[in-house]
Amino acid sequence: MFEMLLIEGIAIGACYGLFGVAVAIIYKTSDVINFAQGEMGMVATFVAYHILTVYNVPFWIAFPATLVFAILLGMAIEFCFLRPAKDPTVLGLLIITLGAEMLLMGLAGWKWGAEQKDFPFLLSVTKTHEIMPGLLINEWTIGVFTLTIIIMISLFLFFRYSKLGIAMRATQQNVNAAKIMGIKVERVFSITWAMSSLIGAIAAMFFAARSVLDPNFMMEPFMRAFAAAVLGGLTSIPGVVIGGLIMGITENFFGYAWPEWKPIVAFVVIILIITVRPSGLFSKHYVKKV
Amino acid sequence: MKKVFIASMIVCAVLVGSFFVFAAGKPGFDNKEIRIAQWGPQTGPAAPWGSVARGSGLLFQIVNDEGGIHGRKIKYFIRDDQYNPAQTKAVVKELVEREGIFAFVGGVGAACGMAVKDYLAQNKIIWVSPSTAIEEYVFPVNPYLFAMYTLYDDEASILTKYTVEKLKAKKIGFLYQNDAYGKSGLKGCKARLNAYKMKLVEEISVEPGEKDLSSQILRLKNAGAEVAVLWVNPTSAAIALKTAATIGYKPQWISSNTLMDFPLMNKITGGLWEGVITGGLGLPTHVDHPLMNKYRAAAKKYAPEERFGVFYTAGIMFAEPLVDALKRVGPKLSTEALLKQLNATKNFQGLGAVVNWSPTVHQGTDSIQILKCGPNSSYITLQDWTSNELATWKKKK
After folding, report:
1. Does residue A45 sit at the B interface (CB-CB below 8 Å)?
2. Residues B306, B236 within the same domain
3. A219 touches B at CB < 8 Å
4. Structural domain of residue B358, as residue ranges?
5. Of A216, A251, A253, the CB nearest to B212
6. A63: Cβ–Cβ under 8 A, 6 or more apart, which residues?
């Protein structure tokens, strides 16, 4: 039983972590928490559902097509909503993302309706493999864990060693200095939103396969993924994934022992840790001079 | 300055005057029509339940086609409250004070109904068959409110009796939504088990929005629950069944009537709903029954775009006792006359259970059917209408 709880905790935690990475990427570049992240993933998942069920195309075509859509959606939201804002404050940008969230939710409700749908994902949660007697692991779990590790390592290397990754980090630390150094910050923002939307769409498709698809299905996962990202440290990609894993495992073990406390126990742990380390477990704390 | 003052006073007087006119409202009927209304979520997260209000509309359409009731046609109003109690208040006030509504029927949402219950009673507006089971609606008796939705604790009690006596289950687990709906089901199940001197092997709560139920399902599995009762919403039920399949747990699932839309449940669980047993509040939509056949034909004619599902037919079912009572009133219609006939409702049966209302009891029934999801989302009737002999409210009568 211990092993099953651990596997299930790691699986859902990896999913939180993956989605948390999408939130963290935008934060790393612009200090903004994108409250439309969940709904961007939701709309992308609906597009995948539409391609799969209306056009009846195989998953290996629908999946990349959805990822292309997600990239364009991220760039479009940045271009249409955030870029026109003149000298925006962080609070102003937050409000803009909240507006985008409502707009996307309304659009999804109008186009696909509020009735729940089953998302036909390639990796099934019901196809299980017995790795040891009594210990089952399903395709979905293997998929989400593998993909999260690959994306985490790729992003870590990207931000550490690639020119674009370094430009993104520079933009986050000081936009004006980045401009002076020749970084095209608008292009950086656009690419950041595209990357974030892409990763968010992958995570949302995993969430939909495990639950059901409707316009509200990403609200709760977004809250937990955001909390996991804060726990790990919003500026550390591996930290965000580890935060997600801590969240998933803690919830599962406490949820097993005291089910009625499950919804809040992870948040209590987060509050305790943030009290001791305000920037999260793995994030460096920058102090800006006034 | 004086002119401005006089003009302001006139504007104020007109506004205050119009307020009293609207507050008084129209009488709700005349020689040509009876105005009946319903709120329901036509948009927003609960929009799938919006078909309840549209289903009632089908019955009124049929009644009007047959010549109306004693020469009066039913004028029916649907308002979208988006499952938001604040919106429900606004639309109900608008309907009562602007349109002049004689009676309300149905009305999805416990919180939405609670938000307007007292307002309707204060304005002496009759409300028949709320689309949810809330004890506070009918206990103590509200003279203007008549309920026919079987209380959740009665339903859970009947299902538990079936589980113990027919399925011979010894170990029963209960997964419930942490709200009034879930707790009512738990209460009914425990009351029945007490009568058998049995106890639940597990009782676990879930929050309505929870997306990961693995620890809860693992607990049910570990407790050895051979029957798992679900008193949750459709999304939580789908997650529970998927998670159980993931960890290799295969109990007999049992659930409330709120999950008796087998085609929908089978669709969102990827076919896992087959074999699940639920309570049934109304006849399954496919049955060969004179009333159901009539409504199915009418739906094809008037609402071909509607899915003839259980929520849609529930809307018809909720409106049936109101139409019956209006017919019995005769041509001399008034609120008092309709109340008298509703209170005299005896053994009325449409698509649902037998309904009885009296001046002292406005909870119309305590019965359900027991259904099983068969192949291709078909409905298998395991047990016909059964009442709850343990119902505590019947003993208070």
Report:
1. no
2. no
3. yes
4. 24-150+286-365
5. A251
6. A48, A122, A205
CA-based nearest distance B103→chain A, Å: 29
The whole-model pTM stands at: 0.84
| Contact call for B245 and A126, based on CB within 8 A | yes
Q: Which residues of chain B does A251 touch, with a Cβ-Cβ cutoff of 8 Å?
A: 212, 215
Give the nearest partner residue to B45 out of A114, A120, A221, using CB atoms. Answer: A114
Domain contains B80: yes
Report the complex ipTM. Answer: 0.84
Cα separation of A226 and A158, whole Å?
22
CB A165 within 8 A of CB A237: no
Query: Nearest CA to B241 among A116, A10, A251?
Result: A116
Please, is A81 exposed, middle or buried when counting C-beta atoms within 10 Å of its C-beta (0-12, 13-18, 19+)?
A: middle
Domain segments of chain A: what residues?
Answer: 2-218
Each residue's pLDDT, cut to its tens digit, for chain B (397 residues) gives 566 666 666 665 555 444 444 444 567 898 899 999 999 988 776 777 889 999 999 999 999 999 999 999 999 999 999 888 999 999 999 999 999 999 999 999 888 999 999 999 999 999 999 998 888 898 889 999 999 999 999 999 999 999 999 999 999 999 998 888 889 999 999 999 999 999 999 999 998 778 889 999 999 999 999 999 999 988 899 999 999 998 889 999 999 998 998 998 998 898 999 999 999 999 988 889 999 999 999 999 999 989 898 999 999 999 999 999 999 999 999 999 999 999 999 999 999 999 999 999 999 999 999 999 999 999 999 999 999 988 877 776 5
Angle subtended by helix axes A219-232 and A2-30, to nearest 10:
80
